[in-house]
Amino acid sequence: MKQPRMNRILEAIRLERVDAKVSIHLFPTKEDFDKAVRKDPQHCGFANCAARVCGSTQAHFFKRYVFIDHPDEKGTVKLHRYIVSKGVSDAIINFDKTGRFKPGRAFTLRAPSKSESIQGMRAANKKWRQSDTAKAIKQEKIARTDFLAAERELTQAKTIAQDTDAIPGSAKARDVKKRVIAARRHLTKSRDKFDSAQKRVAKLRKATYGTAKAKPRQHDLSVRSGTGAWFKMIAQA
Whole-angstrom Cα distance, residue 171 to residue 126? Predict the structure, then answer.
């Protein structure tokens, strides 16, 4: 179900976003889906139903979340956030693919639990970012970026060395040779750093999730060794 990015759409809505406190039920009709637009979060059949039942003008149905504007217990109109049930999700996916909807039943929009709430998810994300595993994954990405940059640097240096018209033994020729040597050293160091970062991530994942989910990610990058030979480096556990 390909849809526009949720955040981009919600940023244009000038309403406070809050978690719904109680679940609600929608009973969409055939007419709601007859005028629905496929793959449009704001004009799907459920959004039309919310507009008809709740008087909503900003109802958006996404893959996991639903946002509907309606008054809270104090009468203030806010953008309430609900969790999409499997029935709603299946109905939307089927409509987006086929353009068909079978009416005759109610669908539940569930109020978020404590862990699913906006504050709960922010706390969980903050805790994750501060964990050793998250920090190790970040370092692995940095090491991988440096590793790929070193590979490109060596390839460029060897190309320059092959195409140079410098006289052997001249200052220009020595500079080209130094560049190739420096690129090889950089590649060796970055490769070792990347390998070490991968092993640390695999170890932390194994400690966190157990062996069933601790399979190391493999990569199939063609890289140059310190002597310039091509080889395949496969991540080890």
Answer: 54
In a domain, 1, yes or no: no
> pLDDT per residue over 197-214, tens digit each?
999 999 998 887 665 444
Integer Cα distance of 81 and 64 in angstroms: 10
**d(Cα 39, Cα 151) in Å, to the nearest integer?**
42
Q: Quick check: pTM over 0.85?
A: no
Distances from the Cα of 206 to the Cα of 64, 143, 212, 220, 234, angstroms? 29, 20, 8, 22, 18
How far is the C-alpha of 60 from the C-alpha of 92, rounded, in Å? Answer: 12
Contact 90, 81 (CB under 8 A): no
Number of domains in the chain: 2
What letter does residue 5 receive in the DSSP assignment?
-
Residues 46 and 95 in one domain: yes
- pLDDT tens-digit readout, 34-55: 999 998 888 999 999 999 998 8
Question: Do 76 and 137 have their domain in common?
Answer: no
Per the structure block, which two tokens stand in for 46?
Answer: 């459920």
Sole residue written with tokens 């029935």? 87
